[in-house]
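New here. Invent one.

***
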Amino acid sequence: MTTVQTVTGPVDPADLGRTLVHEHIRISYAGEELDPTYSWDRAETVARAVDKMGELLDAGFRTFVDPCPIELGRDPELYAEISSRSGMRIVCTTGFYTEHLSSGLPFYWRARDPEEIEKYKKFHDPLQLWQKRLTDEGVINEEQIAALDAEAKAEADAAVKFAEESPLPDKADIFSDVYYEVDRQTPAGRTGKHFFND
């Protein structure tokens, strides 16, 4: 059965409900730890995000997709805490945006040595962390992980093939089905205040 992986576990696509497909819980930037004027409080961020997720749930949304790239502070453990406390399903992206400035990798990662990259993957990569948790708890074994990996790659290859063989959409449709509020010309869509007023 096809499932969607959220930060707290797999979900049946039929249970995703109304979904925000491109939102961010927190955005960082390269070098933030060196900026004396910048600081963030994790507990405060979690509390505020949980409150805002509650507003979204009240508005009828059930799933929140955060495609934050790795160089802008992707934090699946933060997302999992917010998801668990709020009840909002959160989907976190993984991997790199390979077209990043036509170079294939963000600048930071092009200068890292292999040992540092392996250390990061071991302690921060959401796929590896989730796999370890599932294997440690006896939910899945290495053979099943390999089978799921092969299935996911085949599905991705099929999607790429479908996209490459499909005709380009008409220019008039380029903004269709991007934002629910804008497509339906709701008051929020007309003013640009889609979700929050602050």
